[in-house]
Amino acid sequence: MTTIHVGILVYDYQAIDIVGPVDLLHSANAGFLEVSKVFGPIDDGVISRAPNFIFHHVGITKEPFHLFTSAITLTPTTTVDECFEMHPKYVNLIHRHINARKLLFTTCTGSAVLASTGLLDGKNATINHAEYSWAKENYPAVKWTKERKWVVDGNIWTGAGAIAGMDMVAHWLKERFGQDILTYAARNLDYEPRGIDGVSPMIPKRYDESGKQLSTHEFFYHSALDLRMYSLV
């Protein structure tokens, strides 16, 4: 099992920009897939390959932070001062992270925050497409595009709007851990991720014998007895 620590900077973002991708990642956790056997059989071999994500909400302090856009108050789990070998300023934290070749995701206008550090200069990126013209005007050194729902340039992944950010994370899950783990994670959310064009499905469509399209996901409910029987096969 691969353990991956995910650091999330606490500032005034829109809740779904973070909550959506985090819920998808958490739904791919080995422990969550194990619990999800109640909804349908999941092969133990798949669970053994599933990751273990640990989330850290990183604030300047641990004081509660109110999200203006969502009427949600966050309590950071750690501070930038307590992060191992991290500088106490966000911009320096991001610089260190990128220079260490660690993976960085942004969603929605998070790419503008990243652009303000200069780390996107000369790189390909996207942003919430409603902010495309604004981004080009304010950060002209970035190679902005609105032709894709997400853009990958090296270790930097930038997503467009909030749901596009979920699609981006879904693609990374598929690429890193396999189609089956993505499918189980998406099933737990009844979520059908789109491809990079925003149209094509990432999970294959299902059809019955007559050619009629079925629901993308299969949903079952297994009793405790069913689970005991399943564990024996």
TrEMBL record:
Keyword Acyltransferase: no
Gene3D superfamilies reported for this sequence: 3.40.50.880
Alphabetically ordered keywords of this record: Glutamine amidotransferase
InterPro entries in alphabetical order: Class_I_gatase-like (IPR029062), DJ-1/PfpI (IPR002818), INH-QAR (IPR052158)
Domain of life: Eukaryota
UniProt cross-references to PANTHER family, sorted A to Z: ARAC-FAMILY TRANSCRIPTIONAL REGULATOR (PTHR43130), DJ-1_PFPI DOMAIN-CONTAINING PROTEIN (PTHR43130:SF7)
The protein's name: Class I glutamine amidotransferase-like protein
Species for this entry: Fusarium tricinctum
